[in-house]
Amino acid sequence: MTNLGKYNDKRHFDDTPEPKGKSGSKNQFRFVVQRHDASHLHYDFRLELDGVLKSWAVPKGPSMNPEDKRLAVAVEDHPVDYIDFSGTIPKGNYGAGEVEVWDHGRFFPVNEELEKITEKQALDALKKGELKIFLKGEKLEGGFVLVKFKKEGDNWLLIKHKDEYAFNKKYDIEKHRKS
Ligand code: MN
Prior knowledge:
The chain is globular, with a radius of gyration of 16 Å. By secondary structure, the protein is mainly β. The chain has one domain. It contains 2 helices and 9 strands, in the order αββββββαβββ. A hairpin with a 3-residue loop joins β7 (130-137) and β8. Manganese (II) ion (MN) is lined by residues 36, 38, 42, 44, 57, 95.
């Protein structure tokens, strides 16, 4: 069983339009990036695994440029229903501000040789602090790695692999917003 207790504890569901936390069933390996204009603008990167959305807050947002090592702070698991959440979290609530879906699609976890691995292997990789994934979104595409930079704490880096999808120039995430 996964733990959505933290997610639920932080929220008052009579006052926020966000979905109540319950675990999902069969994993569909979806991902979402939500632009979250809260007290600090950031992007939330979420991977569907183990009946929840494993989640990281990425202050600068993901980048398609392999030169960018983007800080990704692990946050509480979110319910799978959060995957298409967009809207306003009212003032006074946790994360108050505007949420919009910036990108979404599917992913698959991969090994060193970029071959697909199972969900269980992906969870083990996460536990060890390094998970490689292949994303098929509308904006994010190709290989990425999430790597924890210390044993302790919640700080990870999200880095684009050098592959045929990579941008080898400055990647300004705010210029890639849907209009
Ligand atoms: Mn957020």
